[in-house]
Design a protein that fits this description.
By secondary structure, this protein is mostly beta strands. It is built from 5 helices and 30 strands.
């Protein structure tokens, strides 16, 4: 027994794998030391972490006219990719070179006030991403490699200036600087290694001096972002140690625990001029216009251990919604973000960990797909998900209308219109979800961060005092052997929000709802039905309502909504990959909300300056042509009566073309 114990201890100390079968067949011997681990070789990987720092803001102001906040704090999640090469010398010294790119999350909308030439302005510094090219020096202790690193850094920063309530044109520039840091790598097998790293990134100072307002040159703004980043990473070696097979391992990687997919969607929308006797700051322009949006997303998933999966979705967004995504309660393009991007904007669309606990019994097959790794899972299971997600990844799903990249585009059709789910201006947030699944039903519950105020990116970290709480019951059934589902959702949001009625009741506030902001509750209900009629025809309907007393925090200006639609596959005319969709929605506002808009108030998407209230009515029809197994072209028409609930304006006819590709 003592010999076995000594043998096990020696095996661990020398890094050799246990081989119980060999031990039972052969006399116990002292373990033979394997060749020392060699770090030489190329690798790729990903990382995620948290960053804190400051954005230094300076201006060429006159003496005595200085920034109110010269150093603006920033913090937020970050994630990205890295690739590099190591050379291990005979003395165990490891030299390396590495490049990375990191996308930053909620490092934007950091405000600084300034007083220049007697005039005040507000500056928004928005750091989008940064990258580095670094040398590395480390010393190998077998499979453990501590190292130091330094090199050059660059980043893209955007500046928005509100100069005495007048917006100056946005300016985006690349900034160059330097970086230094240290970390440690641990190779837990011949190809995979874990990493923990600290890095300091100084992007230098750059003067944004080409911003003009009313033909007047503004004093140059000197912007200097500085970041302290703590990152955890995972690297994959493109070749095993020493460039050959190690310990008999096959040099061909096993991809069965991976899921890698991608998509790109282009939408062009436009309309002819329509009746518009007056317009406000958030009106759909009465003049004819056309706008387009494009997104490109990678879906990368990895199975970590039994039941555990990790997913990362980097995305690039570009383009504008009609009238800068304003003027409709049920907006016409589900791909249009409230944050419009004139140039490609990198973004972390998803970053989450999923853990599933099976309860044994019947199993179901899981197909490989975006954010889904092929395999089998127990039908009876409990699943936990935590990270950056969209609430609609889990709640209010529908087989016939839930994805504006493939089905209906209108916001009040692909989603329940009055469902003000927690999200930033891109539709994403951080949170946690638990799901109990059984054969005929599922129960989901989640908690998610809400914006610090209505319709902004930074999220409120007063946990759990503020946030969004959601519960959904999904039941599954059959009617004449055709499957159907009914989902019932209840939600409650506690957020720093203003009150419509309290704002109007105080003449000193006018329609400035920010004067009444405090922690308030908003709640609502959703009923969601999908029903197959035949193998090719399905119908859906949603009913949604919220109490309509306080500001819309995240979604759109709808307090009550009903929708009904159908989707038909083209099997009957020998085009099984084609689809026809037809649906309608009726949207409404609460009495408090309509009074606020009528008085000249602004919601996230609507505000004509006045209001002749009528329910907003929407009809959408599309034909999706399956070009190939991976590409679809869609022709879409939407008719909107009483846009933004205003009978004085409209109707408007919106024509769209959508090209969607995925693999």
């Amino acid at each position: 027994m003592r010999g076995l114990l000594y043998g096990a201890i020696a095996a661990v100390a020398l890094g050799t794998p246990s081989r119980a079968a060999d031990q039972s067949a052969m006399p116990l011997k002292a373990p033979k030391a394997s060749a020392a681990y060699d770090w030489t070789g190329a690798y790729v990987g990903g990382h995620a972490g948290w960053g804190v720092g400051t954005v230094g803001v300076g201006a060429n102001a006159a003496p005595g006219e200085i920034l109110a906040v010269p150093n603006v704090p920033l913090s937020g999640m970050l994630a990205g990719f890295q690739a590099g090469y190591n050379w291990q010398l005979a003395n165990r010294l490891v030299l390396g070179v590495e490049a990375d790119v990191t996308f930053v999350d909620y490092f934007g909308n950091r405000l600084a006030g300034e007083l220049v030439e007697g005039r005040t302005s507000t500056i928004q510094a928005n750091l989008h991403n940064f990258g580095t090219l670094r040398g590395r020096v480390g010393y190998a202790f077998g499979r453990i490699l501590p190292y130091v690193t330094a090199g050059v850094a660059w980043g893209h920063n955007k500046i928005d200036v509100n100069y005495e309530n007048e917006l100056a044109p946005t300016k985006t520039l690349m900034q160059l600087g330097w970086t230094i840091g240290a970390g440690i790598d641990y190779a837990f097998d011949d190809r995979w290694s874990l990493r923990a790293e600290y890095g300091y990134v100084d992007l230098g100072a750059r003067t944004y001096d080409s911003v003009f307002l009313d033909q007047e040159a503004m004093p140059g703004l000197r912007i200097s972002p500085r970041i302290h980043a703590l990152k955890l990473g995972l690297n994959y070696r493109l070749t095993p140690p020493g460039g050959s097979k190690a310990d008999g391992a096959d040099a061909t990687p096993d991809w069965s625990d991976w899921s890698i997919h991608g998509q790109s969607t282009f939408i062009e929308q436009g309309y002819p001029s329509f009746n518009s006797p007056y317009e406000g700051p958030h009106s759909l322009s009465g003049a004819s216009q056309a706008r387009n949006t494009i997104t490109a997303t990678a879906f990368v998933g990895r199975r970590l251990w039994e039941g555990a999966e990790f997913y990362f979705n980097p995305e690039i967004d570009q383009g504008f919604g009609l009238s800068d995504t304003l003027g409709l309660g049920g907006f016409s393009n589900g791909e249009a973000q409230k944050s419009n991007y004139p140039v490609p904007h990198p973004n972390i669309a998803r970053l989450f960990l999923r853990q599933t606990f099976g309860f044994v019994g019947e199993q179901e097959k899981v197909e490989d797909g975006p954010n889904q790794i092929a395999g089998k899972r127990d039908v009876s299971r409990l699943t936990f998900t935590v990270g950056k997600v969209a609430v609609t990844d889990f709640f209010d799903d529908n087989a016939y209308s839930h994805d504006p990249r493939a089905t209906f585009m209108n916001w009040s059709l692909w989603e329940a219109g009055a469902f003000d789910y927690p999200a930033d201006t891109i539709g994403l947030t951080w949170g946690a979800v638990a799901e109990l699944n059984q054969k005929d039903w599922a129960l989901r519950a989640g908690y998610f961060l809400v914006p610090v105020v209505s319709n902004v990116n930074p999220l409120d970290l007063h946990i759990p005092e503020r946030g969004g709480y959601l519960v959904e019951l999904e039941t599954r059934y059959s009617v004449f052997s055709q499957p159907g589902k009914l989902r019932l959702i209840g939600w409650l949001t506690r957020a720093n929000a203003g009150s419509y009625s309290e704002t109007l009741d105080n003449p000193l506030f006018g329609v400035d709802i920010t004067q009444t902001r405090r922690t308030r509750e908003k709640y609502g209900l959703v009923a969601n039905l999908e029903q197959a009629i035949t193998a090719d025809l399905g119908v859906f309907s949603r009913l949604s309502w919220n109490n309509g007393k306080t500001e819309i925090m995240s979604f759109t200006d709808i307090d009550a909504s009903g929708s009904l639609g159908a989707v038909l596959k083209g099997t009957a005319w020998h085009r099984p990959d084609d689809k026809i969709g037809l649906a309608g929605a009726i949207n409404g506002l609460s009495a408090d909300h309509r009074d606020f808009i009528a008085a000249g108030g602004l919601g996230p998407l609507i505000g004509d300056g006045r209001l002749n209230y009528r329910e907003e009515r929407i009809l959408e029809a599309y034909y999706a042509i399956g070009l190939t197994k991976w590409a679809t072209l869609t022709l879409d028409y939407q008719f909107v009566a009483n846009p933004a609930y205003n009978a004085d304006r409209g109707p408007v006819s919106i024509f769209s073309t959508r090209l969607h590709a995925e693999f």
